[in-house]
């Protein structure tokens, strides 16, 4: 979902659009609110609340330690 609906803007370095790292620093609740009722409603059109919540949790999840998960 991120790749098809969000990355085109949030992967650019523009001062008026928060980067992926800036999104990760926000709470999942704030991101959900922006998707469901705020400025990102257009990009979220057609997604169920559960999908929006999953996207918000994914964006704010700490990076995984791939080396640790390989053991």
Low-confidence stretches: none
Give the mean pLDDT. Answer: 90
The helix tally amounts to: 7
What can be said about the biggest beta sheet?
none
Radius of gyration: 13 Å
Please characterize this protein's 3D structure.
Helices cover 59% and strands 0% of the residues. The chain is mostly helical.
Topology:
Elements: H1 2-5, H2 7-10, H3 20-24, H4 28-36, H5 41-44, H6 49-60, H7 66-69
Compact description:
This protein has about 70 residues and is an all-alpha fold.
What key attributes describe this structure?
71 residues, mainly alpha
